[in-house]
Each structure stands twice: as C-alpha cells, then as structure tokens.
Amino acid sequence: MATALVSQENVVASLVSRTGRHLQRYDKGRRQVVGCIPYRYKNGNSNASEVEDELEVLVISSQKGKGKLFPKGGWELDETITQAASRETYEEAGVKGIVEPQLGNWTFQSRAHGTDYDGYLFPLRVTEVLDFWPEKNNRQRIWMSVDEARECCQRGWMKEALDVLVDRLAGRQQLGEEEMGSCSASHQAKSNL
C-alpha cells in the first residue's frame, strides 16, 4: 500500500484564503466578481416530479454576519473564470464539485464601496463537503430549500441567478423525461412489429 506524504506547508497553504486586490480583474473600472450556487438533491434524487422540492442550495453568512448569500469573490488575473468561481466557493463555503455553465452576469453596486461590480455566477453540483476550509471560522454555511434561499438571500442579483438555475434544472429534467418517453414509445413500436 502506497502512502502519500503531505508536508505541513501544503496543508496550511490549502487552508488559507487569497487576500488583497493586487491581482483583481477590472473591466471599465468595475471589479469582476465570480461565485457559485452550490447545490445538491435531497437523497441524491434528481428525478423528482418537482425540481424545487428536491433541490437544496448552500448559502453562507456574510463576513459581517448580516444576511446570507452565495459564495463569491474577486476573479484574479492568474485564473480562469471557472477556476476563480470554484476557488471562492471552496474558500468561503468548504465545498467542491462540478462547475456547470454560467448562469449569467449582472452589474450590481457594492454595499461596502458604493461602486459598480460585474458579477458572474455558476452552478456547482456539490460532490464533496469538507470539514475544514479557509473561512470556516468566519462564516456559517447552511443547506436550505430554494424557497428558503430566496427568502434570506440579501442580494437581488443572486436571487435572479437562483431562478435561472431552477429553470435550467427543471428544463434538463423535462428533457430527460421526454427522451425517456420517446425511447419507451420507440421500444413499444418495435415490439409491436
């Protein structure tokens, strides 16, 4: 049995969030912010009749503890947009998973700085929930229903992205059901020959 040796430096480095704005991306003076809506299905069931009934999303507390939101942060010059979204979600929420195609982009005003930012959100189908992550001591994470997330999320643009995600997943489910129906109709027609 092979044993991997992990140095203490690597463990510590992986539990430290990036800080500072010297690598931040800007476009026309607007800071570029990316993040994810981490999601999973209750009991692993994505085939329920209503996507919203089975879908859970992960929200985190804001740094100042006033309200809930989806993990997001600055997109830096040395990473792709999906790398940045995945990194921010790991640092702030302690989850990893599959980053799916972008939900959209929004311009919003920073509450702290009063300037416009460009925000990009992606769905992240969660495959791993970590016990330790860089901002564990600074944030709470909470799995909740879509309705609960709509109610408590403090950012309008994030609520819009959540609606896009639900519509996309419902459309994907409907497409799967139609394919199953046509497959079964095709099988029935062949068996009648």
Automatic annotation (TrEMBL):
<dbReference type="GO" id="GO:0005737">
    <property type="term" value="C:cytoplasm"/>
</dbReference>
<protein>
    <submittedName>
        <fullName>NUDIX HYDROLASE-LIKE PROTEIN</fullName>
    </submittedName>
</protein>
<keyword id="KW-0464">Manganese</keyword>
<keyword id="KW-0479">Metal-binding</keyword>
<dbReference type="GO" id="GO:0005634">
    <property type="term" value="C:nucleus"/>
</dbReference>
<comment type="similarity">
    <text>Belongs to the Nudix hydrolase family.</text>
</comment>
<dbReference type="GO" id="GO:0016462">
    <property type="term" value="F:pyrophosphatase activity"/>
</dbReference>
<keyword id="KW-0378">Hydrolase</keyword>
<dbReference type="InterPro" id="IPR020084">
    <property type="entry name" value="NUDIX_hydrolase_CS"/>
</dbReference>
<dbReference type="InterPro" id="IPR047198">
    <property type="entry name" value="DDP-like_NUDIX"/>
</dbReference>
<dbReference type="InterPro" id="IPR015797">
    <property type="entry name" value="NUDIX_hydrolase-like_dom_sf"/>
</dbReference>
<keyword id="KW-0460">Magnesium</keyword>
<dbReference type="InterPro" id="IPR000086">
    <property type="entry name" value="NUDIX_hydrolase_dom"/>
</dbReference>
<dbReference type="GO" id="GO:0046872">
    <property type="term" value="F:metal ion binding"/>
</dbReference>
<dbReference type="Pfam" id="PF00293">
    <property type="entry name" value="NUDIX"/>
</dbReference>
<feature type="domain" description="Nudix hydrolase">
    <location>
        <begin position="29"/>
        <end position="166"/>
    </location>
</feature>
